[in-house]
Design goal:
Chain lengths: ~110, ~120
Amino acid sequence: ELKVEQNPLFLSMQEGKNYTIYCNYSTTSDRLYWYRQDPGKSLESLFVLLSNGAVKQEGRLMASLDTKARLSTLHITAAVHDLSATYFCAVDMSGAQKLVFGQGTRLTINP
Amino acid sequence: GAVVSQHPSWVICKSGTSVKIECRSLDFQATTMFWYRQFPKQSLMLMATSNEGSKATYEQGVEKDKFLINHASLTLSTLTVTSAHPEDSSFYICSAGEGVNTEAFFGQGTRLTVV
């Protein structure tokens, strides 16, 4: 059974600081997603990581994937308040869009 | 990216009644769609895989007679919550993709409140 674990689950940080969210998964997969969810909303796709060593960046967010370590990271650079949200990683079990989600990381960025 | 649309966005129903939620792929055909459930402050849990023209596949612990799924066309899957109870109150989200090894796209979600 595929398990996906994120840490930390809660993160409160100051604007301007850097931090990393970690996503570990238990079985082999070559497709990992990062999503953002605002309260009461659905998921907003941030990154799709398809291969070992993949790195993608968008604004202050950068995601990477190490399939050998079964680890993905979401790095936040110089955080701003607008990035406050819950972030989920999800692993595609079979290439058929059937996803297993991590627990989510609730990120609060304080002015 | 591809667009997946859910309807309604929110619904309030009385305990014991049934509620139908629609999930449509607007600009692509999807032989498979997925239904997830999210309780407050929790993650998304896969409920079932909706297969066009055949029976849905339910995850362990999900009652197939309570959560009826119909995928009658390549662009529409419906989830009917039968005899809803307050514990069924949740955020239901569907997803679909354009084919194997393509990205999953999510609908806007449906907030179900059973009173």
